[in-house]
């Protein structure tokens, strides 16, 4: 097999920031130079409205395939069907193959009430007494079937993490998924890595033989009204009322992941900085949502022989 190389970004949250187009265009310009096979968007991209079709045009302009995942905020102002239509997706979870690697894209935006699973829709999670985010039983069974296919390597993509333990950040039934992955790794097949967005933070953690990679957001960290700050022009604050609660990164963070024929992984990270004010200047230090606060994406070079 030849190496497989893809670009990943997540959590643009286009409608909440003033410079989303710039971030996306810079990303596209950067990756044009690189010999990548496809692009992955791990979710929380934008509102699924006609006005935002231009963002899809930007992604399409690369001529490379791109794969979308649904984030918790993508359906904040519409239902699931509209999001799928916007992205031209047939299903909210699916798989695709490049070389010897099967990529499995999951939809973790569900609320569980006993044995019933309700997809996120118009912020229904906000007032819900149910369990969320969760991978529904039917989808978990589908994942098990996918992992049974004859294929040496797998990569799992999801909006929410399968290892973040902090409050409701990670997928509720993540232990079941981790167990499934560990079982697969005992055979001749291997789940090389799981990639997620949503955490707006940078983390790479190895559990068993699998790397769990939380990809930092393309745009910002949300700290909430408690840390509001007015560091942009009046006009920007008027047009983007939530920007006062965010700390934006200057760069549109993204990463390039290469999977080598022997299963080794190379992550080309990115160093960034905060745009107008740092969390430290706002009095925020330590962890946030169970992750270190940072405007960067880490690099990684694995060596299976070690
Ligand atoms: Fe999210």
Automatic annotation (TrEMBL):
InterPro entries: Calcineurin-like_PHP (IPR004843), Metallo-depent_PP-like (IPR029052), STPP_CPPED1 (IPR051918). One of its GO terms (molecular function) is hydrolase activity. Signal peptide: none annotated. Residues 5-201 form the Calcineurin-like phosphoesterase domain. This is 3',5'-cyclic adenosine monophosphate phosphodiesterase CpdA.
């Amino acid at each position: 097999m030849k190496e497989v190389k893809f670009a990943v970004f997540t959590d643009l949250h286009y409608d909440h920031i003033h410079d989303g187009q710039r971030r996306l265009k810079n990303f596209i310009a950067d990756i044009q130079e690189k010999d990548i096979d496809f692009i992955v968007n791990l979710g929380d991209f934008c509102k699924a409205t006609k006005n935002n079709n231009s963002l899809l045009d930007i992604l399409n302009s690369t001529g490379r395939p791109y794969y979308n995942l649904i984030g918790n905020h993508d359906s904040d102002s519409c239902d699931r069907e509209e999001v799928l239509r916007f992205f031209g997706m047939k299903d909210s979870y699916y798989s695709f193959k490049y070389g010897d690697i099967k990529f499995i894209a999951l939809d973790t935006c569900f609320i569980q009430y006993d044995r019933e699973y309700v997809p996120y829709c118009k912020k229904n999670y906000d007032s819900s007494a149910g369990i969320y985010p969760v991978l529904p039983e039917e989808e978990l069974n589908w994942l098990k079937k996918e992992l049974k296919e004859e294929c040496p390597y797998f990569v799992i993509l999801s909006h929410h993490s399968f290892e973040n333990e902090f409050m409701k950040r990670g997928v509720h039934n993540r232990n079941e998924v981790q167990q499934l992955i560990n079982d697969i790794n005992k055979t001749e097949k291997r789940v090389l890595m799981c990639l997620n967005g949503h955490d707006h933070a940078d983390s790479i953690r190895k559990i068993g033989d699998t790397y769990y990679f939380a990809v930092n957001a393309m745009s910002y960290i949300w700290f909430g009204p408690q840390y509001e700050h007015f560091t942009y022009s009046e006009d920007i604050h008027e047009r983007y009322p939530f920007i006062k609660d965010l700390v934006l990164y200057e760069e549109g963070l993204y990463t390039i992941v290469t999977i080598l024929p022997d299963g080794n992984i190379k992550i080309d990270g990115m160093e960034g900085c905060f745009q107008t004010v740092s969390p430290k200047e706002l009095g925020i230090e330590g962890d946030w949502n169970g992750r270190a606060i940072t405007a960067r994406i880490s690099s990684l070079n694995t060596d299976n022989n070690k």
